[in-house]
Give the backbone structure.
Amino acid sequence: MLIINPDTYRTLIKPLLFRLSPEAAQSAAHLALKPHRVWQAASPLLRVDDPRLAVNLAGMSLSNPIGLAAGYDKDCEHLPALSSLGFGYLTCGTVTEAPRMGNPSPRIIRYDADEAIINSLGFPGKGVDYAAAQLEQAQHLLDNTHVVASVSGVAPDEILRCHRRLEPLASAVEVNISSPNTLGLRIFQQPDTLRQLLERLNDGRRKPLFVKLPPYLQTPSTGSEQKDMVLSLVDVCLQQRVDAVTVANTWPARDSRLAVGAGGLSGRPVFADMLHMVADIKAEVGDRMAINACGGIFSGADAIAAIQAGATTVQLLTSLIYRGPGIAKRINKQLLALMDAEN
Ligand SMILES: Cc1cc2nc3c(=O)[nH]c(=O)nc-3n(C[C@H](O)[C@H](O)[C@H](O)COP(=O)(O)O)c2cc1C
C-alpha cells in the first residue's frame, strides 16, 4: 500500500498525479476512492486508535481532532472511502440547492514548491438532491465517522433548504459564507444579514451548526477593517448559539493563469495568518464556542500550534493533495509523539 505512506506518496504517486492537470488529478484521486471496500479493508492501517486523541466538538465525540475540510468531496460521493482514512470527521460539500457549473477553467493552479493551491472553482456541484441521495446511501458505510455537511447559497432561502435537507443525514451542518469565488455570498458577511439567516436556521434546527468565516490579514497596510468585520460576525455567531466557527476559508489571491483571474489561496502560506486569527477569535469567544482551525495544516506540530492557539479541531484539504491519503494518520501519530515528548 505505497499510496498510504506520505513519504512514498510524495516521491512516487504525487509526481505521476501532478503530471495531470489539477482537475484531472482530482478526478483520478476520486476514481481511486470508488472501490470503497478496498479502502475499508485498509482502514486498520490508516487509523490511530488512542483515547488521548479523542475530542468533543459541539457534543460530537470524535476519535481524533483532524477533520477533512469542505471542498474535497463536493457532492458527498466518496464518504465511505474517506471514512477509512483515519479522520476524526469529514466535511462534505459545499452543497448548493441547484446544480452549478462553477467558474470556467482553468480554475485550479498548483504552487508545488510552496505546497499551495489557488482555486477559483465557484461551487461546481450536482445540487442538494444528489448530495442528499449520496449521504443517504453512505449512512451504513461510515464506520462511525462523523460527517459535517457544508452548505451555501446566494439567498437565505437556498441555504435554509439545503440545511433542512441535509441536517437529518449529517452530524452537523457548516454554513459557508466565505468562498472568495462566489460574489453573492458576501451578503452574509454583513452582520445583520448573517443574524437573519442564523435566526431562520435556528428555528427548528436539531443538530450543531458551524459557520465558516472569511479570513483577514492584519498588517499596517490592510488596517483592522477586515478583522473588525470578521469579529463582528463572530459576535453574531455567539448571540445566535452557533456551535463552532471554522477559521477560515481560502485567502483571496490573484493569478492571471486562472480564467477568472482571481481565486482563493490555501496550503502552507496561509498557516501563520490562520493561527493569528484563531488566537484573536479565541480571545473573543473563550469557551462559549468551539473553533475549527483550517489553513495550511500539514503536521502534528501545526495541529498542536492551532490547538494551543485555541482550536478544538483542525481541518485540512491541501495537505491531503500534497501528502496523500495517509495524512491524517501521520498527523495523529505526530500528535501522540508530541504528547509523549511533552509528557
Ligand atoms: C480545490 C479546493 C476546493 C475547495 N472548495 C471548498 C468548498 O467547496 N467549500 C469550502 O467551504 N471551502 C472550500 N475550500 C477551502 C478549504 O475547505 C479550506 O478552507 C482551505 O483550503 C484552507 O485549508 P487547507 O490549507 O488545509 O487547504 C476549497 C479548497 C480547495 C483547495
Q: What stands out?
A: The radius of gyration is 19 Å. The pocket of flavin mononucleotide is lined by residues 69-71, 74, 94, 108, 117, 119, 121, 150, 176, 179, 212, 249-250, 266-267, 270, 294-297, 316-319 (CB under 6 Å). The first strand starts at residue 55 and ends at 57.
